[in-house]
Amino acid sequence: MIRFWGQSKFSVDPLKPVGCELFLREKIGQSWVLPNNFDQFSPRQIADLLLQTVPALPKGLKNVSINLDPEQFIDPNFCDTLKKIKNQLLPVTLEVELTEHPANCVISTDQIRLAAKRWFDAGIDLVMDDVGSGENQIDRTLQLDPYVQEYKFAIQNFRQTRSLTSIIHNLSFWCEEAEKKHKLFTVEGIESKTDLELLINYRINMLQGFSLGHPVYLPTLAEQSKNSVIQFTKSKNS
């Protein structure tokens, strides 16, 4: 069994949830765990789960995003399948985040760039996840620039102390790149009020992190309906 867990993304001013990043989890025994192999799940399974999850989310969210490793990102079946269902998720828009994870096979820069164009042409926004980490360095980011709408900077990937001061250089670089390239800029890994205070002088569009909200289990429509019936029955019999 698979389900999405979700972590809210917050606008800066005012500070309120405006989106949600979805994380795929698999139930093993009584625990929900990170799957060992994401390739075992077909595009159709992911699409069906989106159709069951997104309409059950709290009202008012503007977008949801799912993470794709490079192998999934370049797979035309993923793009074609999600393109077919994206309008069924409205008014919530669907985004894909290209992870910084290395591929398990040889994938060329041309393959990544052509895939990015395919997502762009499909009308699905592309987010560069964890810029400056793993494979999502400046070279790849510049190659995909015409097709990218948002950069996400993960301060937890650079944090060596409990202060942001050790990673100010990297943060400043990517914030400036986002501004120059007219991209939305999200900072994730917010863990304290101090983090928020240190970010106040940067042009940041959205925030994400444990101090704002942990990833939580998201019910599907079927589960939500079942819970509503239970609540109605209890209320009726009380």
Automatic annotation (TrEMBL):
<dbReference type="InterPro" id="IPR035919">
    <property type="entry name" value="EAL_sf"/>
</dbReference>
<dbReference type="InterPro" id="IPR001633">
    <property type="entry name" value="EAL_dom"/>
</dbReference>
<dbReference type="InterPro" id="IPR050706">
    <property type="entry name" value="Cyclic-di-GMP_PDE-like"/>
</dbReference>
<dbReference type="Pfam" id="PF00563">
    <property type="entry name" value="EAL"/>
</dbReference>
<protein>
    <submittedName>
        <fullName>EAL domain, c-di-GMP-specific phosphodiesterase class I (Or its enzymatically inactive variant)</fullName>
    </submittedName>
</protein>
<feature type="domain" description="EAL">
    <location>
        <begin position="1"/>
        <end position="229"/>
    </location>
</feature>
